[in-house]
Specification:
237 residues; alpha+beta; TolA/TonB C-terminal domain; 4-stranded mixed sheet; two-stranded antiparallel ribbon; cell membrane; energy transducer activity; TonB
Length: 237
């Protein structure tokens, strides 16, 4: 009889398992909230590493780097270097604006030794000279000669200034004055015909001015004879 029950038991078991499978298929079991995947909210993109190019290294700037400018003190002024060409050029000015002023310096006071210029009498001390008259102020000069005087007038003034001396006797007695002199510069640079056109009021000062012109020669050679007028002022401080 037991042998006849086994087929029945097997059939009942199969029916029970079939019901269980049907129930599980029809009604899925709820998933635990802890097991649910949380959305990250982040988007991802695929990158083809084989085609991605490495970032370029920064290149050196080919432009030359200049040193930063150093601001200069606005109170500091650098005087321009004097040039011989600038000294040689002088614009035409009025006679009153171009006087050569001769002033004796403290080191030239009586009792101090000072070398006398060539051709100067013993005991005379050198003095300083300022400006003279405008170039070509004397009549009779050709255009070439006038151009020569315009270019070289400052040079001629400087040569005469370096040769001037203040007479010791006039300095001791406080004599001052202004003398105007006319002279000729020849084609070889020599001078002649130096004379006083207007006296300073002192024979000592007039003679010192005449002697300075002779001592300053020879000058640069002009294209033709040039006549020149130069006023010389002697001043004491």
């Amino acid at each position: 009889m037991k042998k006849n029950l086994w087929p029945l038991i097997i059939c009942v078991s199969m029916v029970i398992h079939g019901l269980i499978f049907f129930i599980l298929s029809a009604f899925p079991m709820p998933v635990s909230p802890a097991l649910k995947q949380k959305p990250s909210g982040e988007a991802f993109s695929l990158v083809n590493l084989a085609l991605a190019e490495p970032p370029e290294a920064p290149r050196d700037d080919p432009r030359p780097r200049t040193a930063p400018e150093i601001p200069m003190d606005p109170q500091t002024e650098i005087p321009p270097a004097p040039t011989e060409e600038a000294d040689a050029e002088l614009s035409s000015q009025s006679l009153a604006e171009n006087f050569i002023t001769l002033e004796d310096s403290p080191e030239d006071k009586p009792g101090s030794a000072a070398p006398a210029s060539a051709g100067s009498p013993a005991g005379m001390s050198p003095v300083e000279a300022g400006d003279g008259s405008s170039a070509g102020s004397s009549s009779g000069n050709s255009p070439q000669t006038a151009a020569y005087l315009s270019r070289n007038y400052n040079y001629i003034q400087r040569r005469i200034r370096d040769s001037l001396v203040y007479p010791a006797q006039a300095r001791r007695t406080g004599i001052q004055g202004t003398a105007e002199l006319i002279f000729t510069i020849h084609e070889d640079g020599r001078v002649s015909g130096v004379r006083v056109s207007e006296s300073s009021g002192s024979a000592l000062l007039d003679a010192a001015a005449v002697e300075a012109i002779y001592a300053a020669a020879p000058f640069r050679r002009p294209p033709a004879e040039a006549r020149l007028l130069i006023p010389v002022a002697f001043r004491l401080h």
